[in-house]
Amino acid sequence: MAPSADNDAHTSQWSLTPVLSPEEEQELKEYTSGNINPPLCLYFAAPIIDKKQISRLTQILSLQYPLPDCMKHLKRVRAQQTRLEMLLRPASLEEKMTFSKDSGADCTENAGICRSENIRKDDDTSQVPSLTDIFKDGAIDLSGLGDPFVVSVPMRSARNRKEQQVWAGIWPSTYHEKPKTVNLEEASHGGVSDEEKLRIGAHMRRAIEAAQLNQARGGKGIGAVVVDQESGKVLAVGTDRSGEKRELLLHACMVVIDMVARQQGGGAYECLAGLENEQQPKMHSVTKDDEKQIGDEKENRKRTKESSEHCTGELPYLCTGYEVYVTHEPCIMCSMALLHSRVSCVYYGCCSPGGALGTFYRLHCHPGLNHKFLVFRGVMENECKALDVGQEV
């Protein structure tokens, strides 16, 4: 169903907010503000006075003084305007404290982290040990190196391109872009486009309409919708049924997941049999033609998967790749069900006191999970708050 003029009237009254881990929130905050303050640690370095020794020195240092795993992003050699310089080894805690007292650099005692505003000048060789003192074991042939100095280098790899630009100005490092929960560039400029906001709002309105119908019947005003992101097809519209049929587990998300499972020949709750036509508004009801179309779409997806080299030909598992729109933040049970059903994205309207996708927990951000999905809140928040949810579970 195309977005109506009424949808247009509501798009400017709500904003879409990604629900991120604390680390991702901090990264987004720094990315948006441009105030990127890298964590630094002290390293000994030395100028290269004989370029022919670079290969030998690099191999020896890599074997006897390898960079820690958290510092693998650093390159051993950097090119300055007039010379080449090589990283030698990290400064010890005692050495860091000595430099901190001598130069006033702010280095924490436990981690040896220096604030970026206190980056030590590379040409400052005061109180810096000699090469023989730095390598007291004497097992390294140090010919080809000049007088050592201390330099502050980033102690972790860059998380995004803006950080990499800052990192590169301190010491050369490699950068491997990792998959992001959200697009930082989009999020820093206000999020999704107006067209995408209309699409998201239209699906949330379906969930609100279903919740209002259920509320009018004496049920809870909580609605949910499952959408196939690829085709845009609405696969299920359901509401909270936990106050009916003596089934306390039938929250809105549980209901729509079960409805999708029934379309795939499964389903766990017999009491939901035949609920599809009863639950959805008439304009969204599933007709015989719709059922045939759904079947055709499944067959088409199956054929597409069978033609792919890396697919098994099986139908999608439950809600794999689907979006879920729910008026209220899911509880822990529903959040785990969404995780297990392999949804790609969850949009919810307003927060819940015991919500597990942002308020009480951020379940989707747990590093130990074997499936990741996106979560956004604030979709038509005022309209969702106006619904009567009864006693909170």
UniProtKB/TrEMBL annotation:
<keyword id="KW-0819">tRNA processing</keyword>
<feature type="domain" description="CMP/dCMP-type deaminase">
    <location>
        <begin position="198"/>
        <end position="376"/>
    </location>
</feature>
<feature type="compositionally biased region" description="Basic and acidic residues">
    <location>
        <begin position="286"/>
        <end position="307"/>
    </location>
</feature>
<dbReference type="GO" id="GO:0008033">
    <property type="term" value="P:tRNA processing"/>
</dbReference>
<feature type="region of interest" description="Disordered">
    <location>
        <begin position="280"/>
        <end position="307"/>
    </location>
</feature>
<dbReference type="GO" id="GO:0052717">
    <property type="term" value="F:tRNA-specific adenosine-34 deaminase activity"/>
</dbReference>
<comment type="similarity">
    <text>Belongs to the cytidine and deoxycytidylate deaminase family. ADAT3 subfamily.</text>
</comment>
<dbReference type="InterPro" id="IPR016193">
    <property type="entry name" value="Cytidine_deaminase-like"/>
</dbReference>
<dbReference type="GO" id="GO:0005737">
    <property type="term" value="C:cytoplasm"/>
</dbReference>
<dbReference type="Pfam" id="PF00383">
    <property type="entry name" value="dCMP_cyt_deam_1"/>
</dbReference>
<feature type="region of interest" description="Disordered">
    <location>
        <begin position="1"/>
        <end position="30"/>
    </location>
</feature>
<protein>
    <recommendedName>
        <fullName>CMP/dCMP-type deaminase domain-containing protein</fullName>
    </recommendedName>
</protein>
<dbReference type="InterPro" id="IPR002125">
    <property type="entry name" value="CMP_dCMP_dom"/>
</dbReference>
<dbReference type="GO" id="GO:0005634">
    <property type="term" value="C:nucleus"/>
</dbReference>
